[in-house]
Amino acid sequence: MLNQNTKGFLTLLTITGIVSSVFYGYKGLIEPNLMRNAELFPVEIAEITITPKVEIRDTLASITWEIEDSAGGIKYANKKQDCIDKNNECLSIQAEINGTHHKAEILNLKEDTDYFYKIIVNGEEFPKEDEKFFSFKKPSDPKPAENTGPDLDPKNIHEAIKTQDLTYDLNGDGKVTIADLYMLNSKKPN
């Protein structure tokens, strides 16, 4: 007959053996088969890759991206730290969604200013790292060329329109029109 201590020890060994068999049996037999046939078991979540495109027109930036998820938007600021700190300077915009196409617009851009943004998909931010952001810069608006040569006389604009003398093309549209006369007159002191 076994004493009480021996019975307890044998019971502990039996339970440990059963638990180990179940755990290591899963790890050794079942799990490798799941990995070999992973396409049969949709347990992996696909990695999301977002490649935004930015189009800047006047004081508006249009940011577009393609993704399967239906919810999305952006958060942006002029300084990365504003969005990292989640302060009031970091603004959020919901995206317009058309199928997989997402579009968000930032209005009232300032010249020569950097903008930093993250794309939000179902509450998750991309790029995922706190310190990384997508970015773009609003360039300064080009100034029209000042063409004030001595031969630019408003009296000669009609001949320049007939001959298409591009010396009188003051608005840079590649042709000489009456609009160039208005520009020439606006440059002359009154």
Task: Give an overview in words.
The structure is a single chain. The protein has three domains: about 35 residues; about 90 residues, Immunoglobulin-like (Sandwich), CATH 2.60.40.10; about 35 residues, no CATH class. The longest helix has about 35 residues. It is built from four helices and nine strands; from the N terminus they run H-E-E-E-H-E-E-E-E-E-E-H-H. The protein is an alpha+beta fold and about 190 residues long. The strands form two sheets. Strands 3, 4, 7, 8 and 9 form a five-stranded antiparallel beta sheet that branches. Strand 1 and strand 2 form a beta hairpin. Helix content is about 30%, strand content about 25%.
Question: What does the average pLDDT come to?
Answer: 77
Report on the biggest sheet.
5 strands, antiparallel
- The count of domains is 3
Kindly report the CATH topology of the largest domain: Immunoglobulin-like
User: How much is the radius of gyration in Å?
Assistant: 34 Å
Order of helices and strands: HEEEHEEEEEEHH
- The level-1 CATH class of the largest domain: Mainly Beta
Structural category? alpha+beta
Number of strands: 9
CATH architecture of the largest domain: Sandwich
CATH superfamily of the largest domain: Immunoglobulins
Distance between the termini: 123 Å
Strand content: 25-35%
* Molecular shape: rod-shaped
Number of helices: 4
Secondary-structure blueprint:
Blueprint: H1 4-36, E1 53-57, E2 60-66, E3 72-77, H2 80-84, E4 91-94, E5 96-98, E6 101-106, E7 113-121, E8 124-126, E9 134-138, H3 157-163, H4 178-187
Antiparallel strand pairs: 1-2, 2-6, 3-4, 3-7, 5-6, 7-8, 7-9
